[in-house]
UniProtKB/TrEMBL annotation:
<dbReference type="InterPro" id="IPR011033">
    <property type="entry name" value="PRC_barrel-like_sf"/>
</dbReference>
<dbReference type="InterPro" id="IPR014747">
    <property type="entry name" value="Bac_photo_RC_H_C"/>
</dbReference>
<feature type="region of interest" description="Disordered">
    <location>
        <begin position="1"/>
        <end position="40"/>
    </location>
</feature>
<dbReference type="GO" id="GO:0030077">
    <property type="term" value="C:plasma membrane light-harvesting complex"/>
</dbReference>
<dbReference type="GO" id="GO:0019684">
    <property type="term" value="P:photosynthesis, light reaction"/>
</dbReference>
<dbReference type="Pfam" id="PF05239">
    <property type="entry name" value="PRC"/>
</dbReference>
<feature type="compositionally biased region" description="Basic and acidic residues">
    <location>
        <begin position="23"/>
        <end position="40"/>
    </location>
</feature>
<protein>
    <submittedName>
        <fullName>Sporulation protein YlmC, PRC-barrel domain family</fullName>
    </submittedName>
</protein>
<feature type="domain" description="PRC-barrel">
    <location>
        <begin position="23"/>
        <end position="86"/>
    </location>
</feature>
<dbReference type="InterPro" id="IPR027275">
    <property type="entry name" value="PRC-brl_dom"/>
</dbReference>
Length: 138
């Protein structure tokens, strides 16, 4: 995925590993700020220019994994990580109402700008971006 910041690629598709294997949270449950299940981390989107994880791809909804749809959550939303789960600072409803991703998008920059704006975070490529001071992916 090319964006204003360069290319973002799913860790799964890149064939690469994270420098710190402890940051590979794929497969862990995602819980909202109230402890409700949101879904499961399916993949991590990596900014290939800076080699940093920028977004979680979370399989959300469906029944027993069937019919689940992917949603993207900026890493700035991650509050805590345990061996089994990832806690985010947003509600399950907010995640469900996030702008949907369509792999056939023509303007990915517009989508990612809208996504960061929806969650209330400045995009990491914007002037004056400040990396998260809390959370797992500083």
């Amino acid at each position: 995925m090319n964006t204003e910041s360069g290319t973002m690629m799913g860790l799964h598709d890149s064939g690469q590993m994270l420098a710190d294997p402890g940051q590979d949270i794929r497969g862990r449950k995602v819980q909202d700020r109230d402890g409700n299940d949101v879904g499961k981390v399916d993949d991590l989107l990596v900014d290939t220019e800076h080699q940093k994880v920028r977004l979680l791809r979370v399989e959300h909804g469906g029944l027993f994994g069937i019919g689940a749809t992917p949603v993207f959550i900026p890493v700035e939303a991650v509050e805590r990580v345990t061996d089994d789960e990832v806690g985010i600072d947003r509600s399950r409803i907010q995640v469900a109402d996030a702008p949907p991703y369509d792999p056939e998008l023509v303007d990915r920059d517009e989508y990612f700008n809208k996504l960061y704006n929806y969650y209330g975070y400045a995009p990491y490529w914007s002037p004056g971006y400040i990396p998260p001071s809390r959370g797992f992916f500083r």
